[in-house]
Amino acid sequence: MNLQEMIARQRELTEQARSAGRTSLTADEQREFDELQRQIEALQNSNPTPTHASTPASGERAATPAASAPTPTPAAPNAENERRAGVEAERTRIREITALCRDFGIDEARFVNSDMTIDQVRANVLEQLRANSGPVNARGTGTGEDARRAAISDALLMRAGIHIENPAAGASDFAGASLRSIAASCLAAENGGSGSDYFMMDASRLFDVLMQRQYLTPVAAFPSILDQTIEKAYVEGHRTAPVTFDRFCSIGSLSDFKKATNRYVAGSFGDFLEVPEGGELKHFVPQDEKLPQRELKTYGRQFTMSRQAFIDDDIGMITRLPRQAAQAARRTQNKQVYDILVNNQVIYDGTNLFTSGHKNLLAKGTDITQEAVQSMILALGGHVNDAGDAILIRPAYLIVPLGYKFKMYTLFNSATISASGDVNPLYQYRDQIEIVEDATINALVKSGSPIPWFMMGAKDDAETIQVDYLNGKAIPNVRRMEVAGQLGYVWDFYLDWGISVQDFRGVVKNPGVAITSPLALA
Question: What does the pLDDT average to over 386-413?
């Protein structure tokens, strides 16, 4: 093998691991990879000047390894050769299936004894893992390397101030480790422990070695530790994002990006009809001419841990930034939901969400008062279906701008409303109606303009706004990319979601009044 062929074989090994869903090479693959790496380094040391052309220069002879056997002359095709080729192909198929199944703890017998190809087996294994509650972590090499990577990852997160509920064993041992020392340690370990020179390299040279190592083996230890750290950080960011939309929105799932029509709107089913003896049940057919639709879109951002960040030991690039990325995804969804409410977007029937025709808009905006809340409760429960029967929608949420929750608390938690002991009729709703306060409403309204607030019904009575995710996955995806010409490690963050109004009858808008603060800020 020449240099290009050896590098190509290393890529083939790592791609084989990736396509099989593994984060590390098998023992046999690792031995072959390491042997190829030793040959590459030996070849580079003996000929430090890179050769850009694969064809020898004029007058030169191509180098031929002394141990290379002469190329055999292909035998003439015959039945015996075909039989041998078939046997070898079947052996290869069995070997690949066995390795794939053992990596995921799956019995390979039923696949080996079938006529399935390796690609068909891989798809079947993936489906089996998904059915059993998600993918199984790839098995380690038995050297404790996976545990060590987890400990270093948790140490980086704790150093950045991110709380880890159950840190990996030994994480405290790496509490003071810098990115440079971690990288040198990983490179030394991958070199069989004989890599003391890595610790003496300056940060710039060490980074160059890391980038070359990433190019040759994407499952190397250092980028793997970065991946683990970023994944944990963005999961924590998703969990702690200060959003409120998911408290009153319905959450759904779509399996693809095609538009999906929702045929389940409040009150559309009508009444149960009497069935006379020997009679037939009447079939239900939705009567709405225009039904709400759901559709997914993809959103995302990309960021790089640059060479400068590595040299500066800026661990925030792999801890705080990923956490902020996950929070940004949640805030974007939150803003899109409130934009529908505040800016009164056009919905599935071709009109604005809040109109007099929809009977969900108060004629005049008011402050937080008992009368206003009662009017919104009446409006919410005043809808009827096509047959003229009442659609029972219970009030469940009051969605208000920042600064209104103080008044709401008094409005609902006082048993009386006067010194003479007059009963507060809203007291009965104190445990039924949840107050949702969000400053996003304030931010979406121009300064000095009236700020609206809303009442929404229970999700079981009317699905007003629905947020759908691709296959129900609400946490952003993250993947490390190999970008040509990019000086650093690059990650993509992306998530598929769609937000749609499913029924205008489940929400009422009070146009509100301008908020005047009792405090004058300097």
Answer: 87
